[in-house]
Amino acid sequence: MKDKAAELAVVSNKSFEASTAVNLHHYDISSALQTTLEFNELIAIFCNKIQATLPHNSVEYVNDEFSLAFKRGIVGRHSCNYALKVEEQQLGELKLTRSQRFSKDELKMLESLLCCLIYPLRNATLFQQALQMAYTDPLTKTNNRTAFNDALLREISRSKRGNQSLSLIFVDVDHFKSINDEYGHDCGDLALASVASWVKDSVRGCDTVFRYGGEEFVILLADTHQTDAAIIAERVRSSIESHTLAYGMDVLNITASLGVSSLREDDSTESFVKRADAAMYTAKQEGRNRVCLG
């Protein structure tokens, strides 16, 4: 039987402190939850700690703000759901299931124990929000150059360790300076934000788009050979070309030049990036609005 999610809110530090002082079990859970700022780890620790007190077969935690869905165990017939929040800040929804119905006393105990989880979840939320701000370009809502540098090192290491392919696509908006000069920087900003949206709509869910700088974007494609990367690059180029941008009474047709490279065995980070960048400049020199391989 599925029950509607209950709403659990802790409205003050005082009530939280009172709940942790009730017994040592609460203190033990609270102490364990101070060891991480990762949502998945917090939920796993919490459920491990309460398993003896409140046996359950599965747990599911969903946090829409961070597109997170954590699941563990085998789903049972009976469930209890809690929408977690503190001081009007949404912290996600927790669901426990098992084959036997949860008693009123067990639910009361669970609600008491959940008070230990609320503030660690809020800390994790604040941490993740800060990371998002640090790694996101505010204009285009894509990942920024810092995020790219970190992701590139991680993906190169993973690719070489697992002997998997890895590709890059550099995307540069054609004649962007002319857009700024003729229509102004507000139009230039609109053009960049629009191109970023078109690029994101053209790639796969597993691909990551970054604003590399100025009017230049880069797409990181894990486990992708150059042939497949070139196909994706052509899809991105075609998408940009097929869109028009209305600015005031004017209609702008925007195109982009793209360069593709795939990781080689002897590549360094610099050579991998430089080859894609050079291929993009070759596309510029050959007439723009095209894809070149590096």
UniProtKB/TrEMBL annotation:
Annotated Gene Ontology cellular component terms: plasma membrane
Matching Pfam families: GGDEF
EC number, as in UniProt: 2.7.7.65
Cofactor(s) needed: Mg(2+)
First-level EC class: transferase
Domain GGDEF span(s) in chain numbering: 164-294
MF annotations from Gene Ontology: diguanylate cyclase activity
InterPro entries given in the database record: Diguanylate_Cyclase, GGDEF_dom, Nucleotide_cyclase, Rev_trsase/Diguanyl_cyclase
Catalytic activity: 2 GTP = 3',3'-c-di-GMP + 2 diphosphate
Biological process annotations from GO: cell adhesion involved in single-species biofilm formation; negative regulation of bacterial-type flagellum-dependent cell motility
Protein name, entry field: diguanylate cyclase
Species for this entry: Methylomonas lenta
